[in-house]
Design a protein that fits this description.
alpha+beta, five-stranded antiparallel beta sheet, 128 residues
Length: 128
């Protein structure tokens, strides 16, 4: 194998182990209502056959609001324009729809927001 293949394999294995660790860590911690909201994935198919996969913001009577994981932008769609809403969306189905790298980056972003930032800046100078 070439050096590039070895490096790619290391990256893929690193992502795999990170995902396995985060799943195990998430199971150890008790789920809070906020965790359930953050982990709530959905797939929306519009009448024009456009498919979105996102994190639920609000699933109201007349509209569906969610964070689109492809564009990373909030989307609001009228329910009259929706063909199908699959909520909750299993992780494997989300992977099939948008791909593992995009879904893992979203999940890692959620975990990064939950981490406590500790430490102090020793000294800031203009002479960088």
């Amino acid at each position: 194998m070439s050096n590039q293949h070895n490096q790619l394999l290391r990256v893929i294995l690193g992502i795999f182990f990170l995902a396995a660790f985060t799943c195990a860590h998430a199971q150890e911690k008790k789920a809070t209502p906020q965790d359930k909201l953050e982990a709530n994935l959905l797939r929306v198919t519009t009448l024009s056959s456009k498919v979105y996969v996102g994190q639920v913001i609000e699933n109201g009577k007349s509209t569906v609001r969610f964070l689109d994981l492809v564009s990373n932008e909030p989307v609001e769609i009228e329910k009259s324009d929706v063909k199908e809403v699959l909520n909750p969306l299993p992780f494997d189905d989300a992977v099939k729809s948008i791909g593992l790298p995009r879904l893992l980056s979203w999940k890692i972003g959620l975990l990064a927001k939950k981490m406590n930032n500790t430490g102090k800046v020793a000294r800031v100078t203009a002479q960088v």
